[in-house]
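Friendly challenge for the regulars: who can give me the structure tokens for this chain first? No prize, just bragging rights.
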Amino acid sequence: MNGYFQLITMPTSTGIRVYEPTDGGETLKYDDVKEYLDERKVSYKPAILNEAITEATGEIVVLNDNSCFPERESYKLTISRDRMEASVFFYAPSENAEYMNPQEFLNDLASRNIVYGIDEEAIFEYFSHREYCKEIVIARGTKVREGSNAKIDLQFNANLHAKPAMREDGSVDYFNLNIINHVHKGEELAILTPEDPGDAGSNIYGEVLRPHPVKPKKLVAGKNTYLSDDGLILYADTDGHVTVRDGKVTVSNVIQFENVDVATGNINYDGSVEVKGTVAAGFSIKAGANIHVKGAVEGASLTAGNDIILERGINGTGKGEIKAGGNIVTKFIENAKVSAKGSITSESILHSNVSAGTEIRVSGKKGFIAGGRVTARDKIIAKDLGSDMGATTIIEVGADPSIKVRIRELQKAIYDSTKRLENIRPTVEAVTKRLRSGSRLSAEQTRQAQQLITQNKILTSQIDKNSKELEELQQKLADSKEAYVVVEGTAYPGITIHIGDQQTTIKLESTYCRYELRDGKIKTGPI
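First reply, four minutes later:
Bragging rights claimed.
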């Protein structure tokens, strides 16, 4: 048992009897006795009290010369801050004073609204074997069990990237790219683990504690897929390849052509398109998934939801355009407009407008970028940049290419609107001045004046809106810090390099170097 004390009331004085702990119990603490006496306004000398507690002889120590009323058995109640636990600290009654009984104590808890998680076993254990000056937990709340959001586990790799291998002779292997997730009918594509709402809890006052809300999900069957009866597993309904489009898992077949030309016309297909031969100038292919052309592409238009592979490259003759929702791998790009939301890999880029949402790599035997504008958000890596012929070459990194395109569009729109505003403003001001002076306008003049005033408001509003968007995009451009350009061979003079909102023109030939932003400026260093 812990050490404890007992208040002793005598005819002309008040004393205290302190008992030492037994069987390894804790020693009585001075503050526990002090708190008890102070609450009951029993006076004492601290030194005498401290000596009585320290010696704990079990003998009566007089505290003062005033007699007080006997004190019943009592307790101190402590509630945790989170209201999840209540504990009591019982005090012994004065000599010959009354004891509490279990029912009285339980009624007292009820009057304090402590109604949940009461440990009656601990309470009755105390009243059967009283232990004073000891903390006893008599009520515990139930903690909330937090749930979890639903999740969908794809049974295939949804982030395949086309990365052709380099052969020993320096050429690129465009045949083994492993960019297609092949599946067979009946194969599992995705598994749904439903949300777990968790379990509510309660504090000792019976207040319900709710778990945090969770987010549900459900599998949605895309093209050529079906769900299990319980909606938890998604299966392939046909052989083909699987992709994720617009949040849905779809299985697409691959359609093949010998060539795309006058014999086929333009191609528009939801799945993947494979062309064994060439795509003739003027024709187009639109595919919901991948496009794979084994022959040459001559001034044609190719648009794919995912990746585009051109084993022989493209000569756009100034008309060809390639657009991919994923990555592009091609032998070469010449006189063409090429864009990808992912990466672009080629052996050479010549006089073309090329943009990638992530990176551009130009390697292999040639590995050069010469002429045109080449843009990537993260990085551009090439063997050679520019040429000793001085072809105008612009290299841009540090922002999504679409941002820079939009910036140029906004700058042109603001310029055009400003010019139109400048042209009509003198007339608007003259009409306003006439009206203020009291001059009357004819019906036709009034109509024209109203049109000009309306046009003035519209143009002003457009300029404000476009200027705000332009400022936001330019800030994004200014925040580009991690992008860089790597030259594994030679960077020729005359090349302009943009990183974020900074630019520099190379004046001296450099080799094996890296361009990046440092201290707000474009600087070069070794690879």
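The mean pLDDT is 89. The CA atoms of residues 201 and 333 lie 64 Å apart. Your move, everyone else.
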